[in-house]
Specification:
The structure holds 2 protein chains of 2 kinds. Chain A is of the alpha+beta class. Chain A folds into 2 domains: 4-228, 3-Layer(aba) Sandwich (Rossmann fold); 244-359, OB fold (Dihydrolipoamide Acetyltransferase, E2P). Helix content of chain A is 25%, strand content 33%. In chain A, the strands form 4 sheets. In chain A, strands 6-7-8-3-9-10 form a 6-stranded mixed beta sheet, with helices on both faces. In chain A, strands 13-12-11-14-20 form a 5-stranded antiparallel beta sheet. In chain A, a hairpin with a 3-residue loop joins β16 and β17 (315-322). The mean pLDDT of chain A is 91. By secondary structure, chain B is mostly helical. Chain B folds into 2 domains: 2-79; 86-300, MetI-like (MetI-like fold). Helix content of chain B is 76%, strand content 0%. Chain B has 13 helices and no strands. The radius of gyration of chain B is 28 Å and the shape is flat. Residues 299-303 of chain B have low confidence and may be disordered. The chains are: A alpha+beta, B mainly alpha.
Chain lengths: 370, 303
């Protein structure tokens, strides 16, 4: 009922093109996360869906309706803002019911809805308070409640958790995803579009994630695909922590990879994944978790020097310099037989099944065949 | 033994600190006394004419110019009684009523129209916005007197002379650029999220203005009304130009009236009525001081 479709959606501010004709389909009942670094136009896109920002080109459909020129109130959406945007002069209960009162809903319906929503979000105690008497977490719940009470087809969240402290953020994350599941199980097919710059939020909350950069969509996929099969070097670098090691390399005879002056063999399985007509000048990408520390005297692998060691408890981050490239390698801290020390020589070998090769010019991942 | 010396050392140290603190406190005390004395004296000098006015309004006409003192030697309220009757067929009550009749519609009209115009300037993009806003500022800088003659001619064409309309209508059409500017500055300081939330909740622009913006704007609107109140109370030129029949005169004109018509000036009447004339403004000012300051500082500093 509430599929959201964006077709070659554009936004132009004067001479600056903020959104470059993006296409995106969000399924009914789906939890879609828009994620990207600041300035990638994710919020602008959301605000265009909401109707708070005029669109410069393309179309937006919610359900089957073309909503390009509809005011926000008629789009069947509800929005939760980054800094709550509660009406400061109204009590919590009036904040919740403002939309219903504008529609002149019957009084008993307003009372029933307010009660139901405040029960779900556990804000019953605060109904008589003013927003300034609420803590950040409480205010955020009221803001969610104000969206929920309208029973919208589409929920829009604009970085709703970024003003909360880390602990509260984790619990709100769970609360929001639970709420979405609960609504689905009650047969209310609410679609969610959730904007964040935090990849943890994106990975943990989204059914699918849309990674954006400078007004363009880089990849739309579920969290697993995004992590394991990033479509390009940008997505590969953006998703995952610590960041993927990305650097220049040369494909030699299609079977060996040369990084700096060191070369190692790519096994058959990995070789089969790489495009046949791949150029020799490429970019490699290996996640910090996907290295094996091998014997220093081994025939292959990258020989480098440890420049820094960070002990994280369950794992150790090794900062390794291989010629003029730096790598971050994460190794498990348990069952360690050898201690890693700064300035030690070390030889690391990328795990073949987790090796990514990107086209150096376009950034496109060319190791996704098969 | 060592403990003892330690404690005595500590105590001399402490004593020293206490003494220093006392010296410091005394210095602050003395300097604040000096400050307040200076403020008091200067304030008194500036306020004395007003204080004298109040004292003199209880004096007899003969005593008026013989001493500059405050206390009347033969206090009398005859100035008030005689002054209230005026030399016209009307009492001063009529003139106060006229002032109110000008004031109240003007204040309401200003508050509504200035809010609407300021909302437009602060929140909407429309063609010619920059030019219009620039001309608003230009009006702000233009001396009032310059527009008097064309305005007079215009209102004469409308047949509005000798009515209150020329005094209300410009204000009810956001003619007071100062208030529009002040509210624009206020609005710019209010985050847009709340209006956006209201629009998502289904409010139209007018509903967002009425239910969300106006409540947030209340302190600013109060200061707008207060300023308009003060200025209208004190406005002499406007009524002088547009009103010709005595029964429509506001207080500011009526005061002048008692000077014009009596051959020998009954100063005590004039002074008594002056005291009455400034009383509403003074009372309002002291009751609502907070809003005046808020209005000025928010309009000026935050912009």
């Amino acid at each position: 009922m509430a599929r959201v479709q964006l077709k070659s959606l554009e936004k132009v501010y004067g001479k600056f093109k903020a959104v470059h004709g993006i296409d995106l389909e969000i399924e009914d009942g789906e939890f879609m996360v828009l994620v990207g670094p600041s300035g990638c136009a994710k919020s602008t896109t959301l605000r265009m869906i909401a109707g708070l920002e005029r669109i410069s080109g393309g179309e937006i459909r919610i359900g089957d309706d073309l909503v390009n020129d509809k005011p926000p109130g008629q789009r069947g959406i509800a929005m939760v803002f980054q800094n709550y945007a509660l009406y400061p002069h109204m009590k919590v209960k009036n904040n919740l019911s403002f939309g219903l009162r504008l529609k002149h809903a019957p009084k008993d319906e307003i009372a029933a809805s307010t009660e139901e929503v405040s029960h779900i979000l556990e804000i019953e105690e605060y109904l008589e308070r003013l927003p300034k008497q609420l803590s950040g977490g409480q205010a955020q719940r009221v803001a969610v409640g104000r969206a929920l009470i309208k029973k919208p087809q589409v929920f829009l969240f604009d970085e709703p958790l970024s003003n909360l402290d880390a602990k509260l953020r984790a619990s709100m994350r769970v609360r929001i995803t639970d709420l979405h599941k609960q609504l689905l199980s009650e047969g209310m097919h609410s679609t969610v579009v959730y904007v964040t710059h935090d990849q943890t939020e994106a990975m943990t909350m989204g059914n699918r994630i849309c990674v954006m950069k400078e007004g363009r969509i880089m990849q739309v996929a579920d969290p697993y695909t995004l992590y394991q099969r990033p479509a390009n070097a940008f997505v590969a670098g953006f998703i995952g922590s610590p960041e993927m090691n990305i650097g220049d390399a040369t494909l030699v005879d299609g079977g060996k990879l040369k990084i700096g002056t060191q070369t190692f063999t790519i096994d058959d399985k990995a070789r089969a994944r790489i495009d046949k007509d791949a150029p020799s000048e490429v970019t490699f990408g290996v996640r910090p978790q996907h290295f094996t520390v091998v014997d220093q005297d081994a025939e292959e692998g990258l020989l480098g020097r440890i420049s820094h060691v960070e002990f994280m408890g369950h794992e150790v981050y090794l900062y390794i310099t291989v010629e003029d490239q730096s790598f971050i390698v994460v190794v498990p801290a348990t069952g360690l037989e050898r201690q890693y020390l700064r300035d030690d020589a070390i030889r690391i070998m990328p795990q073949q099944d987790a090796l990514h090769i990107f086209n150096r010019r376009t950034g496109e991942n060319i190791s996704l065949s098969a | 033994m060592t403990e003892q010396t330690l404690s005595s050392m500590l105590s001399t140290h402490d004593l020293e600190a206490i003494r220093a603190r006392k010296r410091e406190q005394r210095k602050i005390f003395i300097s604040s006394i000096i400050r307040y004395v200076i403020l008091f004296v200067v304030g008194l000098i500036m306020l004395y004419p007003l204080i004298w006015l109040i004292g003199a309004s209880f004096k007899t006409n003969a005593e008026m110019f013989t001493s500059a003192g405050f206390w009347p030697t033969h206090p009398t309220v005859s100035g008030y009684i005689e002054g209230w009757k005026t030399s016209t067929p009307y009492t001063f009550g009529r003139f106060f009523l006229n002032t109110l009749l000008i004031l109240i519609p003007k204040m309401i009209g200003t508050a509504i129209s200035a809010t609407a115009v300021a909302y437009g300037f602060a929140r909407f993009e429309f063609p010619g916005k920059k030019v219009l806003f620039a001309s608003l500022i230009a009006i702000l800088l233009l001396p009032n007197v310059v527009t008097r003659i064309p305005q007079y001619l215009l209102f004469r064409e409308f047949g509005w002379l000798d009515s209150f309309l020329p005094l209300w209508v410009p204000s009810a059409l956001a003619g007071d650029a100062f208030f529009v500017f002040m509210l624009v500055q206020f609005l710019r300081a209010i985050p847009r999220d709340m209006e956006e939330a209201a629009r998502v909740d289904g409010a139209s622009s007018w509903q967002a203005l009425l239910f969300i913006i106006v409540p947030l704007l209340t302190p600013a609107l109060i200061s707008v009304c207060l300023f308009q109140f003060m200025w209208t109370m004190n406005d002499f030129l406007g009524p002088l130009i547009y009103l010709s029949s005595v029964d429509k005169y506001p207080v500011s004109l009526a005061l002048k009236l008692s000077i014009d018509t009596t051959e020998a000036f009954a100063w005590n009447k004039i002074l008594s009525m002056s005291v009455l004339a400034i009383t509403p403004a003074l009372v309002v000012f002291f009751v609502a001081q907070k809003y005046f300051i808020e209005g000025i500082s928010a309009g000026g500093v935050k912009g």
